[in-house]
Amino acid sequence: MITGEIYNFIDSFAPFSSAMSFDNPGLLVGSPNTPVKTVLFALDITPAVVQEAKTLEAQLIISHHPVIFNPLKQLKKGSAPYLLAQYGIDAICAHTNLDMAAGGVNAVLAERLQLSNIHVLSEYAPGLPEALMGELIQDLTPLEFAQQVKRQLGCDGLRYTDGQRKIHTVGLCSGGGADLLYNAVNKGCEGFVTGESKHNLLIDAETLHLTLVDAGHFYTEDIVMQPLMNRISKRFPQLNCMKSVAMHNPAHVI
User: Fold this and answer.
1) Residues 79-86: contacts with CB within 8 Å, 24+ apart?
2) Counting C-beta atoms within 10 Å of the first and last residue's C-beta, which end of the chain has fewer, N or C?
3) Is 103 left (phi over 0), alpha (psi -120 to 50) or beta?
4) Burial class of residue 78 (count of CB atoms within 10 Å of its CB; 0-12, 13-18, 19+)
5) What pTM, to 2 d.p., does this model score?
6) Which residue ranges does the chain devote to CATH 3.40.1390.30?
7) What angle in degrees, to the nearest 10, is found between the helix axes of 225-235 and 3-13?
8) What are the tens digits of pLDDT across the range 78-128?
9) 190: Cβ contacts below 8 Å, ≥ 6 apart
10) What class has domain 3-94+222-243?
11) Mean pLDDT across 132-142
């Protein structure tokens, strides 16, 4: 088993070429010819995650967020890219291509929220849904809906706006998707779940009577790592696949 085979499998259901224009997914560190026996899965590749991979003798880390996003002007000792190169560990990062894929981040989020009649809310390009929408099993008040999202995603805490009406139809976009709230309102959603929201967007959501639930970037995206690991493990049963325990939500709630 080599890194390139795993890369090609991910590319078959979440094509790297489908990523958004600003993105930098792919095989970012290493070689497609690296022999692989052990793979570590993590939302982000931090120095702690790389050290964990070294301890586990993993040859490859698969993450959602790119370990190299902006062009590097220097490679600092102790940084994640530096450690990957130092230890000879490959890194495959599947970002917005995985967000929009069938069975990807948004699809897993919709499943976690137990939505039915799931369909496209907004497309980045034809056939590439950047946001989804669906229906709740039963209508909920804004507070009930926020509490349910908190339970379903295991959040330490979250923020929400009170749309002042019951919620039946819900839009969603994992990570930083709050600017799609206007699409949600136009499509008849009473609720919208995302991972990051600016102050002005919260004001607009409240003004438009939309219950916007900001559940945190980590909690709306980390949920994809276990299904992704299961999918790759099923395809390559000879691999030793593990989910990182070093990766955690860096934000503390008091």
Assistant:
1) 79/47, 80/45, 80/46, 80/47, 80/49, 80/50, 81/28, 81/29, 83/47, 83/50, 83/51, 83/54, 84/29, 84/30, 84/45, 84/50, 85/29
2) C
3) left
4) exposed
5) 0.96
6) 3-94+222-243, 105-214
7) 120
8) 999 999 999 999 999 999 999 999 999 999 999 999 999 999 999 999 999
9) 163, 165, 166, 167, 168, 169, 170, 209, 210, 211
10) alpha beta
11) 98
Q: What is the mean pLDDT of the chain?
A: 97
How distant is the alpha carbon of residue 8 from its chain centre?
A: 20
Q: For 145, phi and psi rounded to 5 degrees?
A: -65, -45
pLDDT tens, residue by residue, 182-218: 999 999 999 999 999 999 999 999 999 999 999 999 9
- What's the pLDDT at 120? 98
> Alpha-carbon distance 194 to 31, whole Å?
35
DSSP conformation class of 224: G
Domain covering 105-214, topology: 3.40.1390
Number of other CB atoms surrounding residue 164 within 10 Å: 12
User: Is the torsion defined by CA of 170, 174, 177, 180 positive or negative?
Assistant: negative
The residue whose two tokens read 């369909």 is: 119
Tokens read off for 63: 């993450």
Coil/strand/helix, residue 6 = helix
> Residue 172 has what pLDDT?
98
